[in-house]
Amino acid sequence: MTAPAIEARGLRKTFRSGSRTVAALDDVSLTLAPGETLAVVGASGSGKTTLARALMRLFDLDGGSVSLRGRDLLALSGAALRAERRHLQMVFQDPAAALNPRATIGRVIEDPLRVHSIVPASRRRDAVSGLLARVGLPADLADRPVHALSGGQRQRVAIARAMATQPAVLVLDEPVSALDVSVRGQILNLLMDLQREDGIAYLFISHDMGVVRAVADRVAVMAAGRIVEAGHTATVFASPQAAETRALLDAVPHLPPRPADEVSR
Amino acid sequence: MSAAPLVSLRDVSVRYGPATPRVLGHVTLDLMAGDRLAVIGESGSGKSTLALALAGLLPKGAAAEGRIAWPGLGEKPLPGRDIGIVYQDPSGSLDPVMRIGDQVAEVVAAHAAGPTDRSPREQAVELLARVELPDPANLARSYPHQLSGGQRQRVALALALAGRPRVLVADEATSALDPVVQSRLVGLIGRLCDEEGLALVFVTHDIALAASLASRLAVVYAGRLVEIGPRGRVLAHPRHPYTRALMAAHLGLDRPPGGRLATVEGSPPDLASPPPGCRFAPRCSLAVAGCTSGDPPWYGEPDDGAACVFAERLAP
To answer: Euclidean distance between the first and final Cα of chain B, in Å?
Structure first.
């Protein structure tokens, strides 16, 4: 068996607000194998985004351990942490907020190549073109500003930027929920293609059970900072055990089966 | 049709300034008493503009061509009284430094039809109960920031109902909420419309959510009404390729897991330079040369049809 791409054990985090304390993460553990997609689902405030941020080390945990490709991520600091970070990247819900609107697309994708010294300066432009091609965008887009793009194109740029460092793990925080319905499928297909080609592990944060069912190998359901149910996607969807899982499934609106797409000409 | 429509749009086009593109073009639509109409579209489709036009709430700078009338209301609606509207972000409708109960009471008092034996404040608490907020008497003393997003949206709904409107417009009113909260709010909106005899205009990007609540579906794309009809007909026999694409893109729980997802290539057009002819043609799998040479013909009735040359062949 191969080593997990990322493994978290017993993560704990308590936030204080005045006299109130909230257990945002309460003994959360997960394992993600290379090439696998684990969806973390839950209602607002369940702790799923806190979990994503904890793995990214955007704040200090109160307890627990995280190992990335077998290395203890929480023991690292300074240059060693920065070097390891290239293997763990994140894509946010709203690409308009995550990317500098005035930067050029080339610059946005080039930044991680430069910061992590992935490719020498002389070859960066080719590398940017290659990354744009991988996410289905033309190379001549590199000189255009981010704000000139549509929402779907922006999310492609955000994915190209995250892929630039050839990460082992990509944390996707609601990556399609701000996108138009007609564009959502393109982005999900792109993510699945990239995963098949590169064997990246995805931690896919979502509250949309329809999307989760379409992309995830396994599901973890969170409520009040805890994982209340976890298992293979097919199993969890076929026989949900936790009340929170059933509530999420019941909330998915039903559409009658669609008609055949063919038409006689 | 027996009764006069509450709202009647005839060939309505809207732009938000002299040198700006049309965000809505040539829309003909009637809203009848008791109607539950969903307006389905993506960002930039003109669905919110259509909702504002129906509500008589187009901003001052907006230029509307065509005819917008409210025959069933007798006159142009007084915003807040005849037509209640709930937006996606309730914080825009709520005063952050005023107690919830006072805000609702203020609207009740402003639109009071005549003397009643109950104070605006008492009526405000009743309204908070009607939108199924817990412990309404106590909650009336809270400020907006003390409530959850779902609770704030219920308060916005109470505000919209406070003037005893005939029409409720919900403009992506549940879209920012998580699915469990969203589904409860959608259920509440449906019950309130039944109980109060309200006509509903439910604006959404989610065709499945629309289908769970509305009896009529209108689909807009790039500023055009591309299809409208009774829910059953549209879902069983969609006549516009875009409606079909939206249905195919829905990720429901009955879809077989795995495999590639149905997609529509490209993205919605920039309204400043829309494609010639049918605006969906560049993304349409059925498009033929003629689709880009002129506006597509309307097939069917004004309240049950689609704007597509293939609509007849897509019809059952």
So the answer is: 25
By Cβ distance, the residue of A151, A180, A213 closest to B253 is: A213
Least CB–CB distance from A251: residue in B183, B236, B248: B183
pLDDT digits (tens, 9 = 90+) for B280-297: 999 999 999 999 998 999
Q: Is residue A122 domain-resident?
A: yes
- This model of the complex carries an ipTM of 0.89
Counting the structural domains of chain A, the total is: 1
Q: Does residue B98 belong to any structural domain of this protein?
A: no
Q: What is the mean pLDDT of chain A?
A: 92
Mind listing the pLDDT tens digit for each residue in A2-27? 789 999 999 999 998 888 888 899 99
Query: How far apart (Å, rounded) are the C-alpha atoms in residues B205 and B250?
Result: 11
Radius of gyration of chain A measured on its C-alpha atoms: 19
CB contact under 8 A, A259 and B262: no
Tokens standing for residue A157: 């740029």
**DSSP structural state of residue B267:** -
pLDDT band with cut points at 50, 70 and 90 for residue B1 = very low
Q: CB–CB of B89/B170 below 8 Å?
A: no
Residues B19, B22, B25, CA angle at the centre, nearest 5°?
155
Task: Report the alpha-carbon distance of residue A202 to residue B90 in Å, rounded.
Answer: 34
Per the structure, the count of domains in chain B is 1
Q: Is residue A147 part of a domain?
A: yes
Residue B284 sits in which domain range?
Answer: 237-316
Domain of A116 in residue numbering reads as: 99-166
- Please, what is the end-to-end C-alpha distance for chain A in angstroms? 53
Q: Which residues of B98-127 are buried (b: 16+ CB within 10 A; e: fewer)?
A: ebbbebbbbbbeebeeeeeeeebbbbbbeb
DSSP E strand boundaries for chain A: 6-17, 20-32, 37-41, 63-68, 71-72, 88-91, 169-173, 201-206, 218-223, 226-232
pTM over 0.90: yes
Kindly list the residues of chain A whose beta carbon comes within 8 Å of any beta carbon in chain B. Answer: 43-44, 150-153, 180-186, 188-189, 192, 207-211, 213-214, 233-234, 237, 247-259, 261, 263-265
With respect to residue B212, please indicate whether it lies within any of the assigned structural domains: no
Interacting residues of A111 by C-beta distance below 8 A, sequence separation 6+: A161
Q: What is the DSSP letter of B173?
A: T
